[in-house]
Specification:
Number of helices: 4
Helix content: 25-40%
CATH topology: Rossmann fold
CATH superfamily: HybD-like
Order of helices and strands: EHEHEEHEH
Number of strands: 5
Structural class: alpha/beta
Largest sheet: 5 strands, mixed
Strand content: 15-25%
Distance between the termini: 14 Å
Radius of gyration: 14 Å
Number of domains: 1
Length: about 150
């Protein structure tokens, strides 16, 4: 059986950009054996490789859409693009939108792709999350656990 994958993206040395990594780390040990948790530094086609071969995927990354820091966005990217409104620019070479659209064009997306974006405010060098973004980590983790419950029992 193909796995369900949770992929947290970010750069641990760029403040709030690491939020996806923090969410993924918080989920380790809290998910079933049928779920793979990946902490990845996005910016290359690695993301497409992680997505490929999965039954369902949940992606978590920092977002920059102008909403208040810590705002949580959730999109179902299974059948339609999420557009550049959530990830208009990236601190990575290729952003999540670029990779998802490439995967869609190549026919390599799994049947279900959920994307969480957490609004970042501080992307300067450093390992600490801003307070608002740190406060969103457990909220997103709880939402991901609910999504996983739905996915693994469907």
């Amino acid at each position: 059986m193909q796995p369900v994958r949770v992929i947290g993206l970010g750069n641990r040395l760029r403040g709030d950009d690491a939020v996806g990594l923090h969410v993924a780390r918080s989920l380790r040990g809290r998910v079933g054996r049928q779920v793979e948790v990946i902490e990845g530094v996005a910016g290359s086609l690695d993301l497409l490789e992680w997505i490929e071969g999965a039954r369902q995927v949940i992606l978590i990354d920092a977002a920059r859409s102008g909403q208040p820091a810590g705002t949580i966005h959730r999109f179902d990217a299974s059948t339609a693009g999420i557009g550049a409104c959530l990830f208009p620019s990236s601190t990575h070479a290729l952003n999540v939108v670029d990779i998802l659209e490439l995967g869609r064009a190549l026919g390599r997306l799994p049947p279900q792709v959920i994307v969480y974006g957490i609004e970042a405010v501080d992307l300067r060098d450093g390992e600490a999350l801003s307070p608002a973004v740190a406060g969103a980590v457990e909220q997103v983790a709880a939402q991901v656990l609910r999504d996983l419950e739905d996915m693994t029992h469907a």
